[in-house]
Each structure stands twice: as C-alpha cells, then as structure tokens.
Amino acid sequence: MDWSFAFVGERSGGILPYSGWRNTNGVTKDLLKIDILNRAPGIVNTYAKDINGQTNHQNNSIFCKGDICELTLGDGTRRLYKKVQILSSLLLEEELTPLMTAQVIKPDYFLLTKETLPSGNELFFSYNEQGHLITIEMKNKAATRHCLG
User: Fold this and answer.
1) CB burial class (10 A; 0-12, 13-18, 19+) of residue 22?
2) How much is the pLDDT for 81?
3) What is the residue range of 103's domain?
4) The total number of structural domains that make up the chain
5) Over the stretch 39-56, which tens digit does the pLDDT of each residue have?
6) Which residues lie across from 138 on neighbouring strands?
7) Cα–Cα distances in Å, from 65 out to 5, 29, 53, 55, 114?
8) Which residues contact 141 (CB under 8 A, 6 or more apart)?
9) Is the pTM of this model over 0.90?
10) How far apart are CA 129 and CA 94, in angstroms?
C-alpha cells in the first residue's frame, strides 16, 4: 500500500492535488480526495461563483484500477484517464511537470480520454504519438460534432 498523489488539471486553468492510499496493483483502497487543510492550503474555487455541493472541490474523488483512473466531480461529471508512459513536454508547460513529478517517487502519467457530462453528452479526447491533443469529439443523443481538430 502506497500513499499516492494525483495532480489533475481543471478547466479553470488550475491544478488540483488529490491524495490517498493506493495498492501496489494500482487500485485505490479509498477514493483519492483533495486534502485542503494539509495538501492544498489557500485553494479556493470562487471562479464558479457560489460554492455549493456541485462546485466544492472537496466533493471530487478519484478511483483508480490498473491503467484507468476515473475522476468524479461534485456536479456528476465523470472524467476517464488512461495511463501513458510519459507526458508531452508541452503539457502543463515545461516547468510544471518536473515540479509536480519531483514530489513523488515513481510517477505515473495519465491522459484524459473521455468526459461524461451531467447532461449525458460525452467528450472524447485523441492524442498523437507525442501525447499532444489532436481532437475533441462531442457525442450526444442528437448529433456528433468535432470541437477541435
């Protein structure tokens, strides 16, 4: 059993730190959560206007099993991440990735592959061989649209 950290980028542009116990086989014993008092002092989420159960970062949780991690947000959004060998150096700017990985002994890297919104609409993310985002595809009951690419 290892104490694990996960640094997750948010749409607001911030990076949130999650922590909790994870078995050596990659399964989380309990959900990884944001420990605001000890691991994220000064964190606020006022960009979302009023803080409530849907916008409070403390209601977010991560469950990992093997090469897949799922982040559940307070509003019901679910983000699915798949393990990759290395991140693109351009992801999170060149300075941030080494700073975050220096805080852990053996870092694992994950890329966002799918996001399911509370409406049921789904976003699918595709990357090239270097790990750069190349397309975001939105699928809903009515139609499919390409948002980037």
Assistant:
1) buried
2) 92
3) 2-148
4) 1
5) 665 666 555 566 666 667
6) 123, 145
7) 15, 10, 26, 26, 16
8) 120
9) no
10) 18
* Residue closest to 147 by CA, chosen among 128, 133, 129: 133
For the four alpha carbons of 23, 28, 30 and 31, in that order, the dihedral sign comes to positive
Report pLDDT digits (tens) over 12-22.
767 778 888 88
In the three-class reduction of DSSP (H, G, I as helix; E, B as strand; rest coil), residue 84 is classed as strand
129-143 tens-digit pLDDT: 888 889 999 998 665
Whole-number percent of the chain with pLDDT over 90: 24
Buried/exposed 127-147: b ≥16 CB within 10 Å, e otherwise = beeebebeebbbeeeeeeeee
The pair of structure tokens assigned to 44 is 């606020």
How far from 50 is each of 7, 46, 145, CA to CA, in Å? Answer: 24, 7, 31
